[in-house]
Amino acid sequence: MSKKKITSMDVAKLAGVSQSTVSRVFGSGANVSEKKRNQILEAAELLGYQPNAIARGLITNKTNMIGIVMRNIQNPFYPEVLEKFYTRLAEKGYHLIFMNSEHNFVQEDEISHLIEYHVDGVIITDALLSSSAVQRFLKNDIAIILFNRYIENPDYSAVFCDNFYAGQEIGNYLVKTGHKHFAFISGPLETSTTIDRKKGFEQALAKHGYFDIAVEIGNYSYESGFEAAKKLLQSNKIVDSIFCGNDITALGAIDAAKSLGYNIPEDLSVIGFDDINMASWPSYSLTTWKQPIEDMVNQTIDLLLHEMDEEEKSVSSHALPGELIIRGSVRQRE
Amino acid sequence: MSKKKITSMDVAKLAGVSQSTVSRVFGSGANVSEKKRNQILEAAELLGYQPNAIARGLITNKTNMIGIVMRNIQNPFYPEVLEKFYTRLAEKGYHLIFMNSEHNFVQEDEISHLIEYHVDGVIITDALLSSSAVQRFLKNDIAIILFNRYIENPDYSAVFCDNFYAGQEIGNYLVKTGHKHFAFISGPLETSTTIDRKKGFEQALAKHGYFDIAVEIGNYSYESGFEAAKKLLQSNKIVDSIFCGNDITALGAIDAAKSLGYNIPEDLSVIGFDDINMASWPSYSLTTWKQPIEDMVNQTIDLLLHEMDEEEKSVSSHALPGELIIRGSVRQRE
DNA sequence: TTGAAAGCGTTACCAC
DNA sequence: GTGGTAACGCTTTCAA
Description:
DNA-binding, Rossmann fold, 6-stranded parallel sheet, alpha/beta, 43% helix, homodimer, 434 Repressor (Amino-terminal Domain), 12 helices
């Protein structure tokens, strides 16, 4: 019925002022008398006027929209990340265009959509950008930031957990608690997260004289953890501890071990990564490495907003430490 | 550096045609000769031209953006829902503005943002709209649809699992499998989902002569399931089976029971709702009611798109059945 | 402090 | 088929 949309012009007419003045009230707010402001606000209220962000974006060249492309949203770590990004950005007046990518590299058409909508910035979680993709974003003046991944010599910033350090600490902890036969269930080998966790882990163990680490390649899913652990435990190798690339994988590994008659942690220690909610559930009580989500998200947003403001880009990589959360899935030295 | 954005005008100049013709190529596609089309496409490719969706939206009055406001994104059911919505809508050329609401009623400022951006439609999962909110959307010609909730006498459509039917079937199943002492751990009592599941459950049990159902009120979280089950099992009531309002709650209940020395399902049967991935994990092997996510999402999208097209709204409520998934958390009659 | 007018990058409606 | 031109609803000069 009332198909006609309410515009600033309608408000102007009703309030008996010019459209420019209405615009000032809802925009800068400056240079308008208290009296007219009130008339305008009243008229706007009466008509149910809302400024049109689309029209505004067209002229200001700023949409206040941020694209977020996520992968593995089924991994409980990411909904939490998404929620935090949403909340923080909403506070600052930004809106999220959500995209779910299924590939290690964000696809060209996904990038096209983000560019078409002229988002002010893009957050990429757990995926990478081809160099042509980066060029396309940069050429369109769209700030980019990588969350939980990084690359060498990037043209853009990245925020991630210091996976190498974490891997080391985990290795040290397992040695300290008396383990001698180690295994690692990785995520996909092309991801920097996996590579660094593995490197740190192996390096720490090597320092203690352990060079023979059993490695199984997974994909960060429960199922892959389950299968990998099964394979590991049914081989003729001795394994007294498994470091899993993430928590979901670790939960799979624990279930596999239990199904083979192992007691956790008496017969086998398992350690995860992320510290998702489930890690603290009694059925699992998973010892794990806590990624500092809060800090990571805040830092990402700070960098992104800064980059959106600045004229010249300042590229920087930020590795946040995180911390070991000790629960019940790792046997303490007897 | 190349701060200047490429517009259809630039393409037109390079291709030696008018801007109108460029617009036709990227728009309707009609009324342009093969020759010019190729020139234009070539020029666009060369310049890296992308049509500006913001400008387009301004004139067409259609943004191809859909707002999705979700609650409880930490419940693993919803990331799956989000992923499916994203995928289906992306196929059809729609983009998602993601919002996370923490309230049972979507807040006024959240609605304002959606209206400012002139989304074509809005999907609300697991939350409700005040009647003033509905009026605001409708007045702005924004289609609305409720996912997994419904209200009586609505002004808009809703898609949800037939919770009453499911509750009945679950009641019947527990009776059939030889249970006699029933409990229900609910979600918040103001949600239609909870009310209907409870009603169906109680009605089915009543038909078999069971009237004394122990009820604990939870909030659909793991923790609330844990606490509620503990309370239930430590009371002096006999309980041989618990129907939990959702899977997460059921997992909490199982862990609580185990921590008290109960074996599942020998000493206690537990049944959930949703059929999230975790329900099939060996540690839990949860018997549950599967919500037909795929169908629900598809139906929601069909209704939404239809409503966006139509002049007059056609309100309808769609209850989809779902099905019982039998695993190992319910004792079979001995 | 205010209003008129020029865009922003499209689509849509005209003539030709 | 094609190009000129008027919107779309706003912000932003620029004069007054």
